[in-house]
Write a sequence for this structure.
């Protein structure tokens, strides 16, 4: 590793803030564009001599896990590509050349070469082993990959859901329920493409058989490590769900917690706690919007002639989507 490291297959260089003082190295690398990814008030104005002769872009973000760097990927990718298309080379730097600059370089590599965050990170670490986006930035890179590196990030359901989760977390940290207009009822945002995804299970009110949810809206979680392996006898008593439109009359009341009733027979089928709830397995889930296993029946789908099997509470865990979805 040096102060100025060239990413394989590109004319993109990554480094720390002191790289800008290595004028001879910058000239030798034909640097024409500088992307600065850090928050230092007055940085460009105070150190004008460092940036003289370069086209510059400043993205003011802190190296903290809850910083939204994802929203800048379109602009940073375009800046890097414009620099390369002009025949020059691009320096991407933050304070240490580790997390923020590394994240922007990974995002560029992902879009340019249509590769995963892991693949891009491995290539960059060949020349700069210390590159390590913080956990929050890695989550954003994973989302960016699931969004297929779209330029229209804000229109992506993945991004919208993540922003909703951030809003809920902020409200819960303040001991309040989210504003009614901020609640995202997930079944109202199912796109035509996602509606074709396989559904493993359906959940119905045990009393009146009204359909309440499907596994598409199930939020998986894991028991804490101290409870592993997870005994079958301690199967979670609740299923954690996304907010669904039939819950609207209750969830929009502005209460921090309460009960959920079947919209047809009004029997109690679950509960919610915006500040979170500890599952019987020991896991803490925020927000906690649950269906009680004792109050519902689960029907397995897509199993040929066996698709009408009903399973009562306490009989294993349901098939779910990828681990970690919905956790804050």
């Amino acid at each position: 590793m040096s102060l100025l490291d060239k990413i394989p297959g590109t004319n993109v260089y990554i480094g720390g803030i002191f790289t800008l003082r290595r004028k001879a190295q910058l000239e030798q690398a034909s640097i024409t564009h500088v992307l600065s990814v850090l928050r230092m008030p007055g940085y460009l104005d105070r150190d004008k001599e460092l940036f003289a002769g370069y086209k510059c872009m400043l993205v003011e973000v802190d190296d903290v896990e809850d910083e939204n760097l994802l929203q800048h990927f379109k602009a940073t990718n375009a800046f890097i590509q414009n620099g390369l298309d002009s025949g020059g080379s691009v320096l991407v730097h933050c304070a240490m050349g580790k997390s923020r600059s590394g994240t922007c370089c990974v995002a560029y590599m992902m879009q340019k070469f249509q590769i995963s965050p892991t693949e891009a990170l491995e290539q960059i670490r060949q020349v700069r082993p210390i590159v390590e986006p913080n956990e929050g930035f890695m989550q954003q890179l994973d989302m960016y990959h699931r969004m297929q590196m779209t330029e229209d990030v804000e229109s992506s359901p993945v991004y919208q859901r993540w922003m909703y989760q951030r809003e809920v977390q902020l409200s819960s940290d303040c001991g309040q329920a989210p504003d009614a207009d901020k609640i995202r009822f997930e079944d109202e945002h199912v796109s035509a493409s996602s509606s074709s995804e396989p559904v493993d299970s359906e959940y119905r009110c045990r009393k009146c058989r009204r359909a309440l949810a499907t596994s598409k809206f199930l939020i998986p979680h894991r028991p804490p490590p101290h409870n592993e392996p997870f005994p079958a006898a301690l199967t979670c008593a609740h299923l954690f769900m996304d907010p669904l439109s039939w819950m609207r009359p209750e969830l929009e009341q502005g209460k921090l917690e309460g009960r959920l009733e079947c919209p047809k027979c009004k029997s109690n089928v679950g509960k919610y706690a915006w500040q979170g709830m500890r599952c019987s397995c020991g896991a803490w889930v925020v927000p906690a919007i649950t269906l009680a296993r004792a109050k519902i029946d689960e029907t397995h789908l897509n199993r040929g002639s066996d698709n009408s099997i009903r399973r009562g509470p306490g009989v294993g865990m349901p098939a779910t989507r990828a681990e970690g979805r919905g956790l804050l």
In short: Residues 202 and 214 are 4 Å apart (CA to CA). Confidence is low (pLDDT under 50) at residues 304-328. The chain has two domains: 5-155, 180-311. The two ends are 35 Å apart (CA to CA).
